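Suppose a classmate hands you a notebook page containing two proteins, each written out with its sequence and a corresponding row of structure tokens. How would you begin to make sense of it? This section walks through that situation. The first entry is reproduced here exactly as it would appear on such a page.
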Amino acid sequence: MTLPVVETARAKVNLALHVLGRRADGYHEIDSAVAFTEAGDVLTVLAEQGSGLRLSVSGPFAGDVPTGEDNLVCKAHALLSQCLNLPAMTVRLEKNLPVAAGIGGGSADAAAAIRAMLRAAGASLPPDTLNAIALKLGADVPVCLRQQACRMQGIGEILSALPHLPAPALVLVNPGVPCETASVFSVLGLARGQVHGSGLPPDTADKWRNDLTEPAIRIQPVIGEVLGLMRQQEKLTAVRMSGSGSTCFGLAASLDDAQEAARELRMLQPGWWVLASRLS
């Protein structure tokens, strides 16, 4: 057993999210281009007496995070414990990413917990077992487990390499309101078996889109204000919403350009969460 173990749960950004339709079983088929920022939550695993898991949460968004069995870190521990004899551990989660924000905060935490707990136990699992555990925790957890740029298809379980990113940096902006994924898909309103849209264009990112934008704006109209303000920034391109919202992004030609745009946005809206980061 090697402790302490530290893992960063980097923010996930859906550079595109095309909804292809809704399956007969109720799940939505998607085609998404996913990348990750350098910044994220920080998860630390420490030794604990006795057995089981003790979770504590700190950081600017700690108040929005449940610490009981519903927390995805706790759920990850429970599922791994069915496959491995995990040591007793304390997990300290530094919550730097906003919650219910479309950037995979909870999913990234769950994936970081899996990586950290395996390292703490000095153990490994077959890839198929690991992916099955990740998918049980949520559709975004498999890609967050990889924490590399991917094309994500199916309901999130089909991952392939995304060799070229459309930009090296970006700005993320969250207006401080949650946007629950289930509610956004409900507003999208697809019936079981209904076809919706086309997949990612094979040769260009110019026609990438996020099909959940309009439903999310209906739930949280301020998302439209975020997109409008970001589109006024000369240093930002391809301004879109990530995931099911409410975080929006704008791509930048360099980290310097991203930081300049972020400074301007903080001045215009000091109450919003704004982050400039490299993209990978």
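The notebook's second entry, a different protein, reads as follows.
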Amino acid sequence: MKINTKEKVLFGAGCFWSVEASLSKIPGVNKTICGYSGGHTKNPTYNDICTGKTGHAEVVQVEYDPSQITYNALLTSFWKCHNPTTLNQQGPDIGSQYRSAIFYYTQQQQIIANSSKIELQSRKYPDEPIVTEILPATKFYRAEEYHQKYFEKHDLINTYNPNSQ
């Protein structure tokens, strides 16, 4: 009898469309959902988020099977899909809603995320501080349906290359 295990994490790394496209392709990732987290406004909409006044970040909730992919492997993909040294900006997207953030659900996730950040800092960014926040997960609000699987819906999924950033 196979036990169906799943864990979750929230990643913010700029516009959630590209983050979702990158992470959804990984074997062991069961589900990705675009949404908002880390703020103070209840039930925010995309228009609310764009004001920068809600405190929320655009995030992707990743549900994964830890027997098929490790949390460390997910973190490696997260670090690769954006520049963690730019504060509140990824490419042309500017504002606190585009900040780099890891929202963890367990103490083990927190410890691993912090270790991963320290290791990446020394190995890849010794002269630029990584500004990624590592915080406890807060309420997750699912984004509007037109944001879900955006690259797939617009036939862009095979053209996206997270290493081009």
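A careful reader of the second entry would note: Residues 25 and 109 are 21 Å apart (CA to CA).
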